[in-house]
Design a protein that fits this description.
3% strand; mainly alpha; two-stranded antiparallel sheet; elongated
C-alpha cells in the first residue's frame, strides 16, 4: 500500500504540473473577445474581426448580388418564359435534321451576326425563333491571311461538286450511306488487292522475274538492237543496190541492142528463143 500511495503521489504531481502549464498557456495566449480595434502591437479583438468579416461579406458580396438579382428579375423572367417554346422548336428542328423529309422542307442555315451569335428572336417571323435561310452562303475575309480582318460583302452561295447550290441531307441518310460504304469496304479492299497482284505480275513480266525469264523490257531492247542492225545493214547495202541497179539498166540496154541486131540478121531475140524452147 505504501508503494501504491507513492505512485499516486507522483501521478498527482505530474498531472498538476501539466494542468498548470496548460493554464499558463491559456492565460498568456488568451482570446480577446472584445471589439477593440487593432493597434501597432496587438491585433484587433475577436468581436471586431467578426464585425469586419460580416461587413466585408454582406456589403461587398451578398448585397450587390441581391441587388443584381432584383434588378434583372424581370429580364430573367422574360428569358425564362421563352424556354418551353425554344425547347419545342429546337426539338422539332433536331428531329428534322435526323429523319426529316428534305423534299418538303430543306435543311437551312442559321444566320449569324457579326459577333458570331444567331440573330433573333426579335427580327424573325414565326414559327422560327432565329433567322434561317437557304441556300447556304459564306463570307470571305477582306484579307485571307488575316483571320481578324472584316468580312467582305456580299455573301457568296455555297456550291456542291456539280456546281449547284449546296443542299444537305438528313443524318439518317448519311448514316445509311456510310453503312453501305463500310459494307462494301471488304469488296473494295479485295479489288485493290487483286489489282495490286495484277500490277505486280505485269511488273514482273516487264522486268523478267524469275531472272531466267526474259522480260518485256529485255525483249524491247533486243528489238531495238535488231532494228539498229537492220538499219546498219540497209545503209551498207543501199550503195551496192544503186550500183546493181545501174548495171542492170546497162545490161538491159545492151540486151535490147543485141536483140535489134539479131532481128536485123534474121534471127530471134534471146528472150523469144527461151520462150520457144
Amino acid at each position: 500500500m505504501a508503494r501504491l500511495g507513492k505512485i499516486l503521489v507522483f501521478v498527482h504531481t505530474g498531472l498538476s504540473l501539466c494542468l498548470a502549464a496548460w493554464a499558463l498557456a491559456l492565460w498568456t495566449n488568451r482570446i480577446d473577445w472584445t471589439d477593440r480595434k487593432a493597434s501597432a502591437d496587438k491585433p484587433a479583438g475577436l468581436l471586431a474581426q467578426r464585425r469586419a468579416e460580416y461587413e466585408r461579406t454582406a456589403t461587398s458580396a451578398v448585397r450587390p448580388a441581391d441587388l443584381r438579382v432584383r434588378t434583372n428579375h424581370q429580364l430573367l423572367v422574360f428569358h425564362e418564359a421563352w424556354r418551353p417554346a425554344e425547347k419545342a422548336w429546337f426539338e422539332q428542328e433536331l428531329a428534322h435534321l435526323r429523319t426529316g423529309d428534305v423534299s418538303k422542307k430543306p435543311i437551312r442555315q442559321v444566320i449569324r451576326g457579326p459577333d458570331g451569335f444567331p440573330i433573333g428572336p426579335e427580327t424573325v417571323t414565326p414559327p422560327d425563333l432565329v433567322q434561317m435561310q437557304w441556300p447556304f452562303t459564306y463570307k470571305e475575309r477582306m484579307d485571307p491571311k488575316d483571320p481578324k480582318s472584316p468580312f467582305a460583302e456580299p455573301a457568296k452561295p455555297r456550291k456542291d461538286r456539280a456546281g449547284k447550290d449546296l443542299a444537305l441531307n438528313t443524318f439518317s441518310y448519311y448514316r445509311t450511306e456510310i453503312d453501305g460504304v463500310l459494307k462494301d469496304q471488304d469488296k473494295a479492299a479485295k479489288r485493290i488487292e487483286d489489282a495490286a497482284k495484277k500490277e505486280k505480275e505485269y511488273t514482273d513480266d516487264l522486268k523478267g522475274v524469275p531472272p531466267e525469264k526474259k522480260g518485256r523490257h529485255a525483249e524491247l531492247r533486243d528489238e531495238y538492237v535488231k532494228l539498229a542492225m537492220i538499219e546498219a545493214e540497209y545503209n551498207e547495202l543501199r550503195p551496192q543496190w544503186l550500183n546493181n541497179k545501174v548495171e542492170l539498166q546497162n545490161l538491159e540496154e545492151l540486151r535490147d541492142r543485141l536483140n535489134e541486131r539479131i532481128l536485123q540478121l534474121g534471127g530471134k531475140p534471146a528472150g523469144e528463143r527461151r520462150a520457144g524452147n
